[in-house]
Design goal:
Layout lengths: L2 E5 L2 E3 L5 E8 L7 E7 L6 E6 L5 E3 L7 E6 L4 E6 L8 E9 L5 E4 L3 E5 L2
Parallel strand pairs: 2-11
Antiparallel strand pairs: 1-3, 3-8, 4-5, 4-9, 5-6, 7-8, 9-10, 9-11
Length: 118
């Protein structure tokens, strides 16, 4: 059974930092690219950051320069370090593991709430 379990969300003041974690099980994690998405109330889910299976990171404009995605295949874990948080970063954050191929396969976590507010 495949599981992706996010943690690390919470309430933080503007300008603060949070580090989200996503622990995977049931897959060969090193073969998967991983993403962090977020979904704010009333908005579509959007990609925040992506890291390839071999560790190349890419960021959406919203997080560039403030967010850092990283992974440790030995721990089957991907992180999202978020700095200089803004109220508009408030959302449920989801991790996704995706294996690209003739039939792309992906798995999602249940999400973790991030609230940026004073």
């Amino acid at each position: 059974q495949v599981q992706l379990v996010e943690s690390g969300g919470g309430l933080v003041q503007p300008g603060g930092s949070l580090r989200l974690s996503c622990a995977a099980s049931g897959i060969i994690f090193s073969a998967y690219a991983t993403d962090w998405y977020r979904q704010a109330p009333g908005k579509q889910r959007e990609l925040v950051a992506h890291i390839t299976a071999d560790g190349n990171a890419m960021y959406a404009h919203s997080g560039k320069g403030r967010f850092t995605i990283s992974r440790d295949d030995a721990k089957n874990t991907v992180w999202l370090q978020m700095n200089s948080l803004k109220p508009e970063d408030t959302a449920v954050y989801y991790c996704r593991a995706v294996h690209f191929g003739p039939g792309t396969v992906d798995y999602w976590g249940q999400g973790t709430q991030v609230t940026v507010s004073s």
